[in-house]
Amino acid sequence: MTRSETEPPPLTYAAAGVDDEAARRFVERIRPLARSTHRPEVLAGVGPFAGLFRLGAYREPVLVASTDSVGTKVKIAALMGRYDTIGIDLVNQSVNDILTVGAEPLFFLDYIASATLSEDEKAALVAGVASACREAGCALIGGETATMPDLYAPGDFDFVGFIVGVVERDAIIDGSRIREGDALLALPSSGLHTNGYSLARRVFSVGVGGDPAAERARLERVYPELSVSLGEALLMPHRSYLRELRPLFSHLKGIAHITGGGAIEGNVARMLPEGLAARIDRSAWEVPAIFRLIQREGNVPEEEMWRTFNMGLGLVFAVDPADVAALRSSVPEALVVGEVVRAEGQERVRVEYGA
Amino acid sequence: MTRSETEPPPLTYAAAGVDDEAARRFVERIRPLARSTHRPEVLAGVGPFAGLFRLGAYREPVLVASTDSVGTKVKIAALMGRYDTIGIDLVNQSVNDILTVGAEPLFFLDYIASATLSEDEKAALVAGVASACREAGCALIGGETATMPDLYAPGDFDFVGFIVGVVERDAIIDGSRIREGDALLALPSSGLHTNGYSLARRVFSVGVGGDPAAERARLERVYPELSVSLGEALLMPHRSYLRELRPLFSHLKGIAHITGGGAIEGNVARMLPEGLAARIDRSAWEVPAIFRLIQREGNVPEEEMWRTFNMGLGLVFAVDPADVAALRSSVPEALVVGEVVRAEGQERVRVEYGA
């Protein structure tokens, strides 16, 4: 018996599912996308191991950072084979997270992990990121595209974003100036944004490991109350509120981004100082059809809907009642949805009819 | 037939696999871990949607950012039920990435995604992050713990880090001062660090979807050439080089972190200016036993080993030959492994015997 007969076949990294050569090609391919987002502060051509960004002139700069994924909305994107919009979700949710303290975006990094996504699919993900970065004036200065066999099932991926912004220390919006009687205004959401997808997927049995063709067919259904297919409604990108709110920062006393962790009630509570509470009037806006459809199809209890989904509000902010008219004339979309009241007991936020 | 008989059973977010109440408890539990890393620049108690960090006094600050995951090393951690060290990998690889341009860490954010990890397991992950952050003087100012049913298999998780550091613009190490004849020094790695795990897992058939008990038994084997079990050798944390290199930054002309994307050859090439190449002498250090074991068990071709693994070098840096003696006396671990030569043809880095 010769030695070669007893040896296992030679193993290579590529045979193990990781193709370094392809990875290098991919980095070259997405370079122009990243470059399209660059601002003069980006030091290009330096540091292959990191992104460099020269901070401009600030009196007392405070850096503001946040990280998040788009949750299992990736499952909807993968089923629909639509990879070009979910990067918009990724950037916009981060932009909204840091604008809650009055910060403007500086730069962004993304992380894509999958076992089998094609180069085209990954490039579409980055293209979505780049387009939202350009819109926000935020430089895409780095990222990682990880190939992870055995961790992600075929077609699956995770998609994570990191943002850094800046705010002058004396311009931080921290809720401390909120007073009893302040008005609560809101801007509409564009859909589920990036929260509640594990519940929504269960309701419609999509992305839960069933037959992909059947799951796809369910996403293609056009319910009469939606103007688009279920899949398109669920994939609607998370909108950014930067353009609307940036000019108003100095008038905003507190901003809550309505995301996971309790939706309206949980997130509005987070912006309120001790001793104050919020009453929000459910009749001040119409809950969009997609939420009522989810509720009906899943027989989801009303309170569970309000705890899980944004129910039509993407952002809630507190302002002096004297500023309401001026704010609404500059941002006509903004609705008065409630007011700040004295806290009684443990309850911080009550969403009710006729607040 | 009453209406209740035709309705599906009520669905809740918790029934769909996402328990917001548990998520809130978890955030409270890890708060002291994050706080243990804080520096005076961290503005605590502000911004529930983002982390805030006051930048100190710099002449011309350049922010340096990087993101990465620990790759499929998570598979080894999960199989061994060891969640307390992999966070060290996550932080240290990021610290090393940004120190390549001479940056010092400021703050860090982590992202944990899984479907079924327990609170204890997730808290151990964050504890590892916090301990390495304290060691690096880096503040853990945010993070996200995502519960993603249907995306991650039971026991699986992904673990992503994001770091921001700072360097004065005129102190950036960018390789531009590297000259022909400069010495190449290296610091030893502590194991595979965070690269090549998909190949190593294939070689030993661990974390590839086989019977977990059998995979675990293979990790428990103690090979004669290793002083510890295979699993312990594979899980050895990625070491940080910050303590050793920070005092020397002004003497270092270029730094390559030996990670994915071509290991020694690929990463040393990245730090070299046009027209220059590197010759590295394989006999200058002994390749650690774990790499020879992987090679033997997997029958991995020699060149594939050098393309995929760090082979014992964690970091390579270029210095003036006149500085070598002083550098080696302050960092005795540093080995002279090669030199900078004129580039001939396409080849940038040659790793050979007797360079």
Would you count the extended β strands of chain A for me? 11
Percent helix among the residues of chain A?
25-40%
The profile of the biggest β sheet of chain A is:
6 strands, mixed
If helices are DSSP runs of H or I spanning 4 or more residues, what is the number of helices of chain A?
Answer: 13
User: Overall pLDDT of chain A, averaged?
Assistant: 94
Q: Which class do the helix and strand fractions of chain A yield?
A: alpha+beta
Descriptive notes:
Two copies of one chain form a homodimer. Chain A has 355 residues and is of the alpha+beta class. The first copy, chain A, has two domains: 3-171, PurM-like, N-terminal domain (60s Ribosomal Protein L30, Chain: A), CATH 3.30.1330.10; 183-352, Alpha-Beta Complex (Phosphoribosyl-aminoimidazole Synthetase, Chain A, domain 2), CATH 3.90.650. Helices cover 34% and strands 23% of the residues of chain A. Chain A is built from 13 helices and eleven strands. The first copy, chain A, has a six-stranded mixed β-sheet, with helices on both faces. The relative contact order of chain A is 0.15. The model of chain A is unreliable at 1-5 (pLDDT under 50). Chains A and B meet through helix 2, strand 1, strand 2, helix 4 and strand 3 of A and helix 2, strand 1, strand 2, helix 4 and strand 3 of B. Strand 2 of chain A pairs antiparallel with strand 1 of chain B, so a sheet runs across the interface.
